[in-house]
Amino acid sequence: MIDGEFSLRVPCGRGLVNWLEDELDELGFTERLPARTWVDLHGTLPEAASIVIWSRLATTVLVEIGRFPCTGPRELYEGVSCIPWEQWLDPDGYVSVHGHVRHPMIRNSMYANQLVKDALCDRMVDRTGRRPDSGPDRSGVVVDLYWAGDEARVYLDAAGRKLTDRGYRRDGAYAPLRESLAAAMVRASGLQAGEPVVAPMCGAGTLGIEAALAASGRPPGLLRPGHAMEQWLGFDHEAWKRMRAAARKQGGQTTAPIILSDTDAYALESARANAQTAGVLERIDLRLEEFDATPLCQDAVIFVNPPWGLRLGEEEALVPLYRALGDWMKQGATGGRGYVLTGSPRLAKEVGLRPSRRIPFVVGEIECRLLEFPLH
Ligand SMILES: C[S@@+](CC[C@H](N)C(=O)[O-])C[C@H]1O[C@@H](n2cnc3c(N)ncnc32)[C@H](O)[C@@H]1O
Fold it and tell me: CB of 290 closer than 6 A to ligand 1?
């Protein structure tokens, strides 16, 4: 891979940046600058690749290849023309440009994207006599423009497609939790390998699957083949193969039971298919039953994302469910801890247990809380 250190930007979903920082710290990136939805740091290309393999919270890793003062379209074109694209792009390859623009002169970031694409293609023609194909598809090299105020930064997107779409979810019938949000909840719980997990009302199984992946130390970035960085010119495919093989060896299977349950047969079937694709099915016990029929093993870590009752009148109807959930944890648990994610402060109170932590998360546009209940 191309030698040297780069400025790296590691984006994440809203409300996840503290958990991303925590994770990056664990991965050895101690010098960081966090913003609202990303963390900036420095690293080599193999280090960027290691984040792609190991991060459960990052959306991607962006490698900065250009930064320049930019007060208008002309400077954008000139700045992008100075980037040595011929070092990164195959002139017979494919490139897509995506922009995040906050500038008074640019109403539509498509215009800025077009300028970037023109500038890079003109430079490629000038240096190589050929130009890559281009379009919106993220299957080739992916270029990201961040232009805010008087500065533009140009990045190569190492993953290309969101790392948080792990590739194990085939079924879009429900509105399941984002994989990165589920992973952040598991991180917030401090789940240790060997701790049993019980996830009733599991829906498509995201929480249980992320718990299984984290507890077994499985690298999430290997679930899906084909990251955009593999298309960079000079990308060291042999080193990447070795990195992936080493990461694969590190992950095992968790030894503790993982129980998922739901009353909806279709949900349970998609949880089964998803767990199988994620490679964790053999550890998972799937049960079609009411949540309070699900057995609680000793010292279990319970994860629940119950319905929140977002539509008018629904909240009131869910009061008995939340009360029963509290009773089930109170009466059934022999040690361990429970985590309930809800966007309804009213329903949170109905659980009837005193939370030891109320951890803020954001789901879509909704501020919600992950409530932690110590269980005795
Ligand atoms: C908000 S969804 C969970 C989504 C899940 N976290 C995911 O990522 O796919 C709530 C789930 O609770 C289940 N559910 C509702 N009431 C239940 C009950 N009394 N017992 C068991 N499951 C129930 C529903 O079938 C639904 O799948």
Answer: yes
